Design the sequence.
């Protein structure tokens, strides 16, 4: 076959997740997270995470890549987190590589099962198809990870916006606590 | 959908590429590279690279992941390199993340075009479908990188074993030289 794309290289800062060149950035502020925390955020509407994308065509022969930089902090007792999503094409899998900071990867199925895995420098998390995924920064520094997923996976944010995850991650006296989400709609 | 796999985490040493647990390892020795260098290797039949795999089902909803550790050295004036391959399913793409060492990623199409990109800590190389790929260690330390590719890509080593790449990378007085491969069979 004659290739439809030329090879290219992006430089990634393995500590900060910065990309050079930065082609496309998604910024999420607290105001983008309405209804997702146990209590509504107040105060400054700060950026809590950024996703830097290396966009390629959305087809299943490709690998979409991005870095995520999730700031440390809490809303009430709940750590800063990403919105979380299922893939629009449900069976598409994803891989995370932890680069900096400390966090948890919270995953859930449509059937209500959940799983929690650590994210820290050097973790390679496999998120199989059918598992919604959200990252949570349980540390005091930015949580930085690289993600790679099948090119046509797409994003379904709506299901999680409506149902939530089965568990939430709270700041406890002796570290993070993973507890049932009272607002989860099975 | 009900997921067919459970999430899991592997620990990767971001310097050495070691995986914990190590599930599957491919070792390549000089004797596995017959006919690939300009001159035949002599001396000890040492391991020149290892690929540590995180195997998942070979279907296009998955992402196969591995680390590669390519030792420094030369055969004649030609740097140690991997065999290189096309994907069996030609349009499947792959991503490399450089972790340690210094090297070059040599790529070629079936039409005889070639491309060369650097591999070093923090490079994210995109290898689009249709491009055969080989890594070359041009440094004095092991070249270590992480690779992610579409789950059903498969490997076609035979085409490169027969044809070679259009260029080879030689050790020169002032650094690596990329020169036409006199043995390339277009």
Sequence:
């Amino acid at each position: 076959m004659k290739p439809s794309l030329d090879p290219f290289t992006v430089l990634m800062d393995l500590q900060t997740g910065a990309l050079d060149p930065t082609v496309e950035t998604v910024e999420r502020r607290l105001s983008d997270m309405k209804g997702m925390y146990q209590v509504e955020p107040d105060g400054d509407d700060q950026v809590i995470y950024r996703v830097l994308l290396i966009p390629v065509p959305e087809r299943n022969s490709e690998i979409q890549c991005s870095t995520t930089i999730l700031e440390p902090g809490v809303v009430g007792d709940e750590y800063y987190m990403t919105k979380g999503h299922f893939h629009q094409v449900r069976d598409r899998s994803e891989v995370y590589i932890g680069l900096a900071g400390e966090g948890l990867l919270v995953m859930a199925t449509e059937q209500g099962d959940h799983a929690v895995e650590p994210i820290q420098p050097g973790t390679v998390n496999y998120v199989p198809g059918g598992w919604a995924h959200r990252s949570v920064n349980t540390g005091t520094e930015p949580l930085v990870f690289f993600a790679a997923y099948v090119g046509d996976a797409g994003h379904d944010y709506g299901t999680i916006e409506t149902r939530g995850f089965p568990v939430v991650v709270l700041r406890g006296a002796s570290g993070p606590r993973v507890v049932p989400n009272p607002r989860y709609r099975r």
